[in-house]
Design goal:
The protein is 63% helix and 0% strand. With 377 residues, it is an all-alpha fold. The chain has a single domain, classed as Hypothetical protein af1432, CATH 1.10.3210. Helix 5 runs parallel beside helix 16 and helix 10 packs antiparallel against helix 13. The relative contact order is 0.13. Bound molecules: magnesium ion.
Length: 377
Amino acid sequence: MPVVNELRPYAVAEGRSRGRDRPEPRPKVRGEFQRDRDRIIHSTAFRRLEYKTQVFVNHEGDLFRTRLTHSIEVAQIARSIARALGLNDDLTEAIALAHDLGHTPFGHAGQDALNECMAEHGGFEHNLQSLRIVDRLEERYGAFDGLNLMFETRAGILKHCAPAKARELGDLGARFIHDRRPSLEAQICNLADEIAYNNHDVDDGLRAGLITQEQLTGISLFARHAAEACAEFPSLAGRRLIHETVRRMIDAQVTDLLSETAARIAAHGVKTCADVEAAPPLVGFTAEMQAENRELKSFLRERLYRHYQVLRMTTKARRIICDLFAAFMSDARLLPPQSQELGHQEGMPRAIADYIAGMTDRYAIKEHRRLFAIGEI
Ligand code: MG
């Protein structure tokens, strides 16, 4: 497929954007979506991703993915797909880099624990938290809270949303009430996320020794591409063989997604962004690739995410999050002054959730020690 440099008419374009909540002068040398991307990179929440768990806790090894390297891999894959389809790659990159900003420490275990702690106070959802960070919590500008991003960037960050919450969000939540699809750029980020983590979790899982190449020979996506790599380089073994296999898997998924998406766009006669919103999901894999992905995902769920060594980490993570939440709820004076102030404006439970969600893995462990270890006083 040739690379298209011109935006297709159904791409999100700056000229048709719904702009920013707080109007600002146009940037001098960048596009508006490039400015969004840059604001995300300079945010505090983005830097924190370096010390937040994807699957492995940060200190378990220096070579494992963190949320930061994961987000960069998602942005790379998403940007390549967007460019090849003639879509807005600056917007795509901005959404991809921001998609995990709202994650708690300790991956999904942390999010589930915090959601349970917040059950009676409106819940906690990392995707909504990403939006809350860019709309409200970042403190970088004199004129406004948050990053004041373009409407389409914010809409792309908001992947899912319950109807009750969607009504509170006004224009941004409207698509969840009227059952409309997000932009193609946002749809790409969703699938690029999946391509990135399925493949890097294979790589990290093998590196950690929690899964083995022998187990993966039963998984067709891996087996097929390992056989290809061996056919091309018969003497290849070890890490280099794994890397040659994983890069082929990524390439196959991206190539499959490109041709299937282009076919769906043509089949639905999509001409405008409004057509994208009304159509069924347009970015996707062929049925065959979908089946192979499902097989790989269930393998990872059984063998990696539920591995006893990973479960030990997630159990500990849950305890840390729940202990911290309970300690702050029982005495809000233990919170830093900034969080106490936010609590007076928006309710203490939400301010506590913001504080805990913002922690890196190691900060949460340290804070737990400071509050609970007797020797630390
Ligand atoms: Mg992600």
